[in-house]
Design brief:
Its main location: cytoplasm. With 588 residues, the chain is α/β, with parallel strands linked by helices. It has a four-stranded antiparallel beta sheet with strand order 1-2-4-3. Strand 10, helix 12 and strand 11 form a beta-alpha-beta unit. The protein is globular and about 90 Å long. It binds arginine.
Length: 588
């Protein structure tokens, strides 16, 4: 729905227009001086400049019109021509009752929606996950929620890293260990065993060995490169072996992501676009975009205006194999064929040059316009030492280790809080799992996407402060207020809401600002803006709860109104936490 500021902007804009001024200058925003008024409009200054008039005179004229309109209970002038605005109680109440009817809990709705593919997760087959993959999954999942709530059709694609050099490295390592395996026998071309020769645990041991061997020996590296090229050109034994690697990895990944509450609609990968490489190369050739560079085939993407050199995109390596750039370009071809309007990549910001190369090449190829491809980059989650966070005594990050770590910590907190369930009981372990994941996700999302932050488990799982558990707790408390009053959210919200106490008005005003926060989080691809909003709502509810009697209020209609406001708040908090990918326990 329209936010309160949009509604006020319209009102003030009309007053500007009636004065013969540009209505867009009537923009209203939340005041920097909430002690004076909740909203302000500074447009009279710009309007005065344009009309060559005195800003105070313009502000006076607008004020007079606004006072006559009646939606504002107070309009005052400040400084050279600022307008301080206080909506009337009846206007606030009318908007609050509109909010009650809104099936989207006050979220912003786009007028024209799009079909979007969100590329996030991006784990690599057989290689360990790192914090970048974790952040990508958490941020991607929440952007998906934010965009869907605005009306877009959004599909999440995990884009598995399954076609690069690591596959050749693995094949060669296994060949050295078990040369007798049928996959290496070139006289065999079909009928390979169904059972994988390796488990995911084996891969976790084989990959580091394979990668170390390649670092140590140039010969081994050359072997791995040749094996990668052979795999890509279709050698049957290698393909069969590759399929096993992918299958066992995928099974483990599915478990990990499910535990994290992250879903993907598409489980595609680099390899799935292999059939598109040939047609892509052909159309690059047709458009004369492919150039030769020491035996490799590249697309030039540099521009005169670039501040630093952007190297060409490598499409085909000199040994005929394809790499990260080629598979990403082919994936854009696939995404164009699938009819997406927009492609967003939630990937570590250190990969920005790669995306500049790929996007420019795609634009030259005519796949998407450059503004339809976005790299939503992010910073690093660091350990207290300031280096990228790792679990297992400085070793690789295992998602399952990380989840057990946060769950353990959350369990300590949950045991301390020792809540007695009022409804259906959840086990402490189940609650701790939800709390732990919420702690991890909210800690990540509440920082601006592009900044680095420090992993601080004690702070993340605290029930106080700007944390996931604090928000879960706030929602649990709202539900419990309703339950104790013998009602539930659907029933309670039906009552008319009257706003008389300041803390009621403050809460309602904040709830009516959701659309602004949602829109801004959407447009900037910044979930932390929504985190700020929901945290503000929870704090405001807490103030309301301590200032106003709710279930023990004696006046029946005031009691019903306050329960309705509680239900309204709960509905919005739930909607936002759902967008962010955070579950709410039944009790905690
Ligand atoms: N697998 C890549 C990595 O680990 C991330 C993939 C991101 N997505 C993409 N389309 N390039 O760095």
């Amino acid at each position: 729905m329209l936010s309160l500021t949009s509604r006020l902007s319209r009102l003030v804009g009309e007053a500007f227009q009636a004065e013969g001024l540009d209505p867009d200058l009537g923009l209203v925003r939340v005041s920097d001086r909430p002690d004076l008024a909740p909203f302000q409009c500074n447009g009279a200054l710009a309007a005065a400049k344009a009309a060559k008039k005195n800003p105070r005179a313009i502000a006076e004229a607008v004020k007079a019109r606004l006072e006559a309109a009646g939606e504002l209970s107070d309009v005052t002038l400040a400084g050279p021509g600022f307008l301080n605005l206080t909506p009337s109680d009846s206007f606030l109440e009318a908007m609050t009752s509109e909010l009650k009817e809104d099936p989207n809990a006050g979220a912003w709705q786009r007028e024209k929606t799009e079909k979007v593919v969100l590329d996030y997760g991006g784990p690599n087959v057989a290689k360990p996950l790192h914090v970048g993959h974790l952040r990508s999954a958490i941020i991607g999942q929440s952007l998906k929620g934010i965009m869907r709530a605005a009306g877009d059709e959004v599909l999440g694609d995990i884009h598995l890293g399954d076609w690069g050099l690591q596959m050749g490295q693995l094949i060669v390592e296994l060949k050295h260990r078990e040369p007798g395996l049928v996959y290496f026998d070139e006289s065999v071309t079909s009928g390979y065993p169904e059972e994988s020769p390796v488990t995911v645990a084996d891969l976790a041991e084989i990959y580091p060995a394979a990668s170390a061997a390649c670092k140590e020996s140039e010969g081994r590296m050359a072997e791995a490169q040749a094996a990668t090229a052979e795999l890509q050109s279709g050698r049957p034994g290698y393909r069969a072996l590759w399929q096993h690697f992918v299958d066992v990895s995928r099974e483990a990944l599915e478990g990990d992501y499910a535990a994290l509450g992250v879903q993907f609609e598409l489980w595609r990968g680099e390899a799935s676009v292999d059939p598109l490489i040939e047609p892509m190369v052909e159309s690059l050739q047709k458009k004369s975009l492919l150039e030769d560079s020491d035996g490799a085939r590249v697309v030039t993407v540099a521009r005169e205006t670039d501040k630093k050199d952007i190297p060409p995109l490598l499409v085909i390596k000199s040994n005929g194999s394809v790499g990260y750039g080629s598979t990403d370009l082919a994936t854009l071809l696939e995404r164009q064929q699938d009819g997406f309007d927009r492609c967003i990549y939630v990937v570590d910001k250190r990969q920005s040059e790669h995306f500049v190369q790929v996007f420019r090449a795609a634009a030259r190829l005519g796949l998407f316009s450059e503004d339809a491809m976005e790299h939503a980059g992010f910073g690093t989650m660091n350990g207290k030492d300031g280096r990228p966070f790792k679990t297992r005594e400085g070793g690789v990050l295992r998602l399952s280790d990380l989840i057990s770590m946060v769950t353990e910590k959350a369990l300590e907190r949950v045991r301390e809080s020792d809540s007695a369930p009022e409804g259906e009981a959840m086990s402490k372990e189940e609650i701790a799992r939800m709390v732990g994941i919420a702690a991890l996700k909210f800690a990540d999302l509440s920082n601006p996407r592009t900044t680095d932050y420090i992993f601080d488990l004690d702070r993340f799982v605290s029930f106080e402060g700007k944390t996931g558990p604090y928000l879960q707790y706030a929602a649990v408390r709202m539900a419990s207020v309703l339950r104790k009053a013998g009602t539930g959210p659907e029933e309670a919200i039906k009552a008319p809401i009257g706003l008389s106490e300041p803390s009621e008005k403050e809460l309602a005003t904040l709830l009516l600002g959701f659309a602004d926060a949602h829109r801004s989080a959407y447009e900037k691809r910044m979930p932390h803006i929504l985190c700020e909003h929901v945290f503000g709502v929870a704090q405001s509810f807490s103030k309301y709860y301590s200032n106003c009697r709710i279930s023990d209020e004696e006046d029946n209609s005031v009691r019903a109104s306050r329960l309705a406001l509680t239900a309204l708040t709960l509905g919005q908090v739930r909607a936002i936490l759902t967008q962010l990918g955070i579950e709410i326990p039944k009790h905690m």
